[in-house]
Amino acid sequence: MARYRDANCKLCRREGEKLFLKGARCYLDKCPIERGAGAPGQHGTNMRRKVSGYGLQLREKQKVRRSYGVLERQFHRYYEQAARMRGITGENLLVLLERRLDNTVYRLGLAPSRKAARQLVLHRHFTVNERIVDIPSFSVSPGDVVRVRDKSKRLEVIHMALKGAGRAVDMPWLRIDKARLEGEMLSIPVRLEIPTPVQEQLIIELYSR
Q1: What torsion do the CA atoms of 80, 85, 86, 87 make, to the nearest 10 degrees?
Q2: Which of 3.40.190.10, 3.10.290.10, 3.40.50.300, 3.30.360.10 is the CATH number of 100-187?
Q3: What is the model's pTM?
């Protein structure tokens, strides 16, 4: 299975903003963005400030793709699926990404980052409606209950994530029961409820070229 294996902080530095890829570390002074680090590479601090229209579109696409931990081919499939759906394609794209199981686990505060959530899902630590699901891209639907398996309820990474979940923004489409280590998707999220700072229309323009 292909996946990104290099330093996560390089991705944030390239985009020039926090993508929250390393959990609690992103809130510390150790974060390269907090220290004013430039883009990676020997020419990172001397990059030209002027960016073309295509460059802006590409950066928005890369920012979203890296934030959700999705590779290019899969991201393009999400775009094609969003284009076939009713409504605004850009909003549909973000909704599809938000409904991923690994993202839902992260939004519920049961994992410190999406990357950690992906690993926990792959290692079969979660169930959806009492059935084990080990597919990070599994699409969660309204009414689905995501629960930590009984044998996994003592995992330190989950409890540490819940302690730091106070930093996260409350998601009105999700319900979390910290005592039972479970959550439920109440409804399909709308764009105003998704706290992803991105101009999704630029992504649609990029793929429409």
Answers
A1: -50
A2: 3.10.290.10
A3: 0.81
